[in-house]
Amino acid sequence: MLRRLILSGVVSVLLTAVPLVTAGNAMNRTSLHTAAERNDAAAINKLLAEGAEIDARDSRGATALLTATHGNRIDAARALIEAGADVNAKDHINDSPYLYAGARGHLEILKLTLRHGADLKSTNRYGGTALIPASERGHVETVRTLIAAGVDVDHVNNLGWTALLEAIILGNGGSRHQQIVDLLVKAGADVNLADGTGVTPLQHARAAGYKEIETILLAAKAH
Predict the structure, then answer these.
(1) pLDDT band at 14 (very low <50, low <70, confident <90, very high)
(2) C-alpha pair distances (Å), 162 with each of 116, 168, 190, 196
(3) Could you tell me if 79 and 114 are in contact, meaning their C-beta atoms sit under 8 angstroms apart?
(4) Domains of the chain with CATH codes
(5) What number of helices (H) and strands (E) belong to the chain?
(6) How far apart are CA 215 and CA 218, in angstroms?
(7) Burial class (CB within 10 angstroms; exposed 0-12, middle 13-18, buried 19+) of 20
(8) pLDDT tens across 138-166, in order?
(9) How much is the pTM?
(10) Hey, how many other C-beta atoms are within 10 angstroms of the C-beta on 127?
């Protein structure tokens, strides 16, 4: 019952706020955006050599690098990042290449952004770091990578949730989310940091019937 009430309070927000990114749905794209969408690194290098503005925006505020990241176009992203594209440039809904790659589990692009100045403290439109949606969506290696990079494991988003809470509340309790909870706990996440209503991670895990996650939390002295 507790899990059902929590989910009902946020599902409508999540469904209406997440944009659908499909090929060609953003207007006023430059040739660089088109090359990025096509994963055409050679064309990108040629356009940049001819003076194309590397961080030009389309009508949604997205740079060519963010366009490449939307489609997990690794070659294009690498060409743009190595040429100096801003990995922290946000669009109109506060997505950046770094944040989007983390949230979607685009691991190779995420690693590129981390090597080229990703702002670990930057937050998305929900006030969360890249670690929080990565934890929710079960991207184990992404979570591991972000923890190693030094992202704050106890950052609290606008919903009052940490990465640990979101992995439990919006996760499915399966193997991937168990691994993520274990990674977060071993990284020093506060296992007793409650949500905005005072419900702890352990209480959420018990309410959802996630026995394996409950065991991990109890071993870390959760209450």
Answers:
(1) very low
(2) 26, 10, 9, 10
(3) no
(4) 1-18+119-223 (1.25.40.20), 20-92 (1.25.40.20)
(5) 13, 0
(6) 5
(7) exposed
(8) 999 999 999 999 999 999 999 999 999 99
(9) 0.88
(10) 15
